[in-house]
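Marked as duplicate of an earlier ticket. Keeping the data here for the record.
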Amino acid sequence: MSDKAVKKQYKFQQVTVMALMTAFQLVCAACVLCRQEELSLTMVYIFFGYIAAEWIYMLLGVLVTGNDYFELEAIAFFLSGIGLTVCASFSESYALKQLIAIGIGLAVYLIMLLLIKDVHVANFLRYPAAVGAILVLAANLVLAETTNGTLNWIDLGFFSIQPSELVKIAFIWVGAASLDKLLSATSLTKYIIFSLGCIGALFLMRDFGTALIFFFTFILIAFLRSGDIRTIALICTVALMGAALIIYFKPYVANRFSAYRHVWDFIDTTGYQQTRVLIYSASGGLFGLGIGEGYLRNIYAASTDLVFGLICEEMGLLLGIAVLLSFAVIAFFAVKSAKQAPSTFYAIAAVAAAGMLLFQLSLNVFGITDLLPLTGVTLPFVSRGGSSMLCSWGLLAFIRAAGAPFTPPKPDIAVKKRLPPNPPTVNPPRVQPSKAKGGRS
């Protein structure tokens, strides 16, 4: 089979995947629309507009720009579509805002791909990114009002933003660009100062979940560039000592995690959300109770922090596993891209972005199931919220920019070249030893 035929077959597989995903989304849309007392045309436009946007993006990518693969974006659309369905099951306004957030996130994704297309431009832009991140966090400390014990939201009147989500993109950008070249004390020191500034601001905002994500990403980036386990262990030890001092001088920090591993002892207080997630998500079984039929939706933050439990309850445990496997595929894609990346910048950025997404996923899923302390972070691509959606698509751009496609498997045909027969061996003429002077005749 020729390369052209293989490529054509691969594009056919892409269309097949898109058709199956569209069928799934149409079923989800039908479940949401059938629950309404009166058919909402706005809701119909939201679902069909989203499906049309997916197909337009794929067709333009294949036919116009010549992209040979679509798997990474397909996974993002799949996860975002689940989040859109969850929002639509709550209200029309939630669905419309989520659709707008997905559209802006996709625009951020495309703009990011243009900005980091040239590694020299990406390295130059790390300085504006670092300054902008610090200014945004400083503005957050000044302008934000306390919401649920944290200072991580700025209300702009017609909408609100969570600056720490946007800073995640800059954090990876600055780290990957600073350590792109040979590791030096100057570049590492600058990045450490920048990281300490970001994490310190998050602690002042009492956003401990995001601070943990930033710290994990810093450790990952430092290890990717240095590979020195002893240095990483020293950094972790110092961080643990700092955390112990914070807990000692700020006891309210420890109080936030007092219910960890004891949620059933605080079933009506601090463990209320987690116990309900454990009960209701298990009651959904493999295929769920039906979209909009769950009980977890009546619990606070059901569409944001607890969205994974809501998916398991209403859409089934099988879909919950599919969500987890989707992030595993993104991580696999990042590792494969890093191996073939044309620059260290893309390799570090891709793995760091995938690591950040996976760590945030772990904090969310394991937090609501009491395997880790509940930190209140969102589920990337799925949770309701514009800032989280923009961040998720922005991080995806780092993975996509590394540029290693899922190459279709080539037919296993070994074509052996026929080698010419070995020429007959010609024995060299036997050389008679010369007689020494004065020897016997």
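See parent ticket for discussion. The first helix runs from residue 3 to 34.
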